Amino acid sequence: MGSTSAEHHGSEGVGRRDLIKRSAALGLVTIPTMGFLAACASGGGGDESNDNTSKGKTTKDNPFGAEKGSKLDVVVFKGGYGDDYAKAWEADFNKKLGITSSHTGTQEITGKLQPRFNAGTPPDIVDDSGAQQIKVDVLNKNGQLLDLAVVLDAPSVDDPAKKVRDTLIPGTLDPGTFEGKVVALNYIYTVWGLWYSGKLFKEKGWEEPKTWADFLAVCQDAKKQGIGGLAHQGKYPYYINVAIMDMIAKKGGLDAMKAIDNLDPKAFVGSAAAQAGVEAIYEVVEKGLLMPGTNGLTHTESQTRWNQYKAAFITCGSWLENEQLKQTPTDFDMKFMPMPLLPDSKLPFEAIRAGAGEPFIIPAKAKNLAGAQEFMRRMLSKEWSTQFAKAANSLTILKDGVDPSVQLRPGTQSTVEATKAAGDNTFRYMYVDWYSEMGAALEAASNELMAKRIQPKEWLKRAQAAVDKQAKDPASKKNHRD
User: Fold this and answer.
1) Whole-number mean pLDDT of the chain?
2) Strand-strand pairing, 125-127 and 228-231
3) Whole-prediction pTM value?
4) pLDDT at 51 over 80
């Protein structure tokens, strides 16, 4: 993520099978982030109830009546993907509809926007991502988000015979779905896993490790040569949880993952997969195979040292390449790989965490609601999707949405190949979006674990306590995955 945290980035949906069906031309990358949005306080759509909004005449090409001469207040998280793509969209919006934009690109989403939400004067559309994201589940609970069904059911820009929702990669609306309503549009198709330098591996004669034993062997050889094994973004344990939780899902299969999302009383304590996953990551700590100092570094500090060949591996989502463009040597040859397998794992090596990240939301009290809805509809056109790919080196959730002429960089191209190899073997946790408080508790436990202040057994206890606490919230009964 351009920053850290979330993805959660992961974020996903409700009651839907969450193995995301891979469609052929999938590439991916995105910043993680949590998605969600709430329905408008009036309960459903939220556009009729907003009497501030600028509203013009509705036409076939302008189904929401976005008004020429009105202004759109756009706030974009300026992290791994930058914000040039949004500026290109805004220029096109002005050219085609005569609607100008005030543009804010920032990493301080909460600092800049929480006071505006509190005062009832939020922006019109927000890319709510990064370490300082305003948690979507919280905005949703407070009734501050628009139900996006009205946009998703509108005609697609490219094929008006189809609804917008029918042009998206299956499963990608899940992360922003709360209690059956889509309140956040996670726009970027992302994968999460391990990254390494093709150049370094070639020089050292290392092979991409498919098993955990082989992974540890590469880390041990690196250590002998004065190179760290695994780097992680120590100040933001979101990232190391990608590794821990992926190990649990791959060892125990989708049932182990769903037990966590469904707040099972044996999600962690009593789960052999959870124990094996956390013990594996702790082995890296215990054997001294972490990059020295990594526990005290921010995401960019850790990633930059990895770019300087000070570690063999780092965990991250597919926004990594774009975020590190300036720090990456030209011949680094960035490569993505799935998490290696523990013995007797239920999912294959090729299985990866993948899906949609980078949540875009429309506040229920947006002043220019018609303009915001039309802007989001156009985000899901091939023209704007291709503009995004060119500017941000990433794919979107629009099926076949990026013009084939767009050249992706090596790391992003390797995620495209990994996605094709994974096929239907993709998975995605929902708790990161549904339950931000529980997610924070898991991150805090991992911070202690990586610093050797607690052992795996205590980590499991703390993780289960976070699950049990979340399960007591009656609202959690409305989220369930089959």
Assistant:
1) 89
2) unpaired
3) 0.80
4) no
